[in-house]
């Protein structure tokens, strides 16, 4: 059991077909006690119930600093500790450069980047006191190749920001026993992407993927499991590309 009795907080884990939910199942299968955070309390609780009786969920908007702090306090109150944080909550908007206005920019940057900062700040005091913890940040191939099919330039910028933030946190928190790593998924079939691909576009994208298929949420969940567990005990500040070879 890679995560036996570890308390694992995953943001944005209520979405049924999402990467966060798949990660929650992968962690639970390895003995982790999962905390599902998402915008809607009912959906977060239902997702936790779906994973199993040992797990719990509640509402937390990661763009709200006080809510992140309150969520971390609630987790410590209920479970006594926080061993793992997966900063998974994210949104995207398929816009071109000149279409992005202030509201678009704020929405995408707030959830993806500000949310990663606030939720990490919320768990660090507990992880510091434990002198142990693993934080996994969801970035994107969009940050590395400059845009994707579904993400506009503001999404690429926010996800590139996540990579910089994660590395800076890794540098600062290493001496506290806290590791921080990132995952950059390629095109993964979830609600962000689901149903939006025509057959022609799918075939065109797959031509550029050496492994010859789109990703599934479990592909990313398994990378998160590795980074959350002691299998990656000597990794911090790293980035794992989960993209089928799209960037080779
Ligand atoms: P998804 O839409 O299935 O899930 C995202 C979840 O985040 C949802 O449950 C949503 O309610 C939640 N959320 C949104 N705003 C929130 C907020 N303010 N506070 C708390 N929760 C919030 O998306 P997914 O495809 O599973 O993506 C998960 C992560 O992986 C995201 O960060 C995304 O940017 C990243 N990613 C996805 C892909 C892909 O192809 N699917 C590729 C690269 C990166």
In short:
By secondary structure, the protein is α/β, with parallel strands linked by helices. The chain has a single domain, classed as Rossmann fold, CATH 3.40.50. The protein is built from 8 helices and 7 strands, in the order βαβαβαβαβααβααβ.
If you had to describe this structure to a student in words, what would you say it looks like?
It is a single chain. 46% of the residues lie in helices and 15% in strands. It has helices at 19-29, 41-51, 65-79, 102-130, 141-145, 153-173, 199-207, 217-228, and strands at residues 7-11, 33-38, 56-59, 84-87, 133-138, 178-185, 239-242. The protein has a seven-stranded parallel beta sheet with strand order 3-2-1-4-5-6-7, with helices on both faces. Strand 1, helix 1 (19-29) and strand 2 form a beta-alpha-beta unit. The protein starts with 6 loop residues before the first strand and ends in a 6-residue tail after the last strand. Bound molecules: nicotinamide-adenine-dinucleotide (NAD). Residues 11-12, 14-15, 18-20, 38-39, 61-63, 88-92, 111, 115, 138, 140, 185, 187-188, 190-193 line the site of nicotinamide-adenine-dinucleotide.
CATH topology: Rossmann fold
Query: What is the CATH homologous superfamily assignment?
Result: NAD(P)-binding Rossmann-like Domain
User: Which ligands are bound?
Assistant: nicotinamide-adenine-dinucleotide
Number of domains: 1
The major pleated sheet works out as: 7 strands, parallel
Order of helices and strands: EHEHEHEHEHHEHHE
- Terminal Cα span: 33 Å
Strand order of the largest sheet: 3-2-1-4-5-6-7
């Amino acid at each position: 059991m890679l995560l036996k009795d570890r308390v694992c907080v995953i943001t944005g884990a209520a979405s049924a077909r999402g990467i966060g939910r798949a990660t929650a199942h992968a962690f639970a299968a390895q003995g982790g006690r999962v905390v599902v955070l998402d915008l809607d309390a009912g959906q977060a609780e239902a997702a936790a119930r779906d994973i199993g009786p040992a797990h719990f969920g509640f509402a937390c908007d990661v763009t709200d600093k006080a809510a992140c702090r309150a969520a971390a306090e609630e987790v410590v109150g209920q479970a006594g500790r926080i061993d793992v944080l997966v900063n998974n909550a994210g949104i995207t908007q398929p816009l071109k450069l000149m279409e992005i206005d202030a509201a678009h920019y704020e929405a995408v940057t707030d959830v993806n980047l500000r949310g990663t900062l606030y939720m990490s700040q919320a768990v660090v005091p507990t992880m510091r006191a434990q002198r142990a913890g693993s934080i996994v940040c969801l970035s994107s191939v969009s940050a590395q190749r400059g845009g994707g099919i579904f993400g506009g330039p503001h999404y690429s910028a926010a996800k590139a920001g996540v990579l910089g933030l994660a590395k800076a946190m890794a540098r600062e928190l290493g001496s506290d026993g806290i590791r921080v790593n990132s995952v950059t998924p390629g095109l993964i079939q979830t609600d962000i992407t689901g149903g939006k691909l025509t057959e022609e576009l799918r075939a065109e994208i797959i031509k550029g993927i050496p492994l010859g298929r789109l990703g599934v949420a479990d592909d990313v969940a398994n990378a998160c499991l590795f980074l959350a567990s002691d299998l990656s005990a000597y990794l911090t500040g790293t980035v794992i590309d989960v993209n089928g070879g799209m960037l080779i």
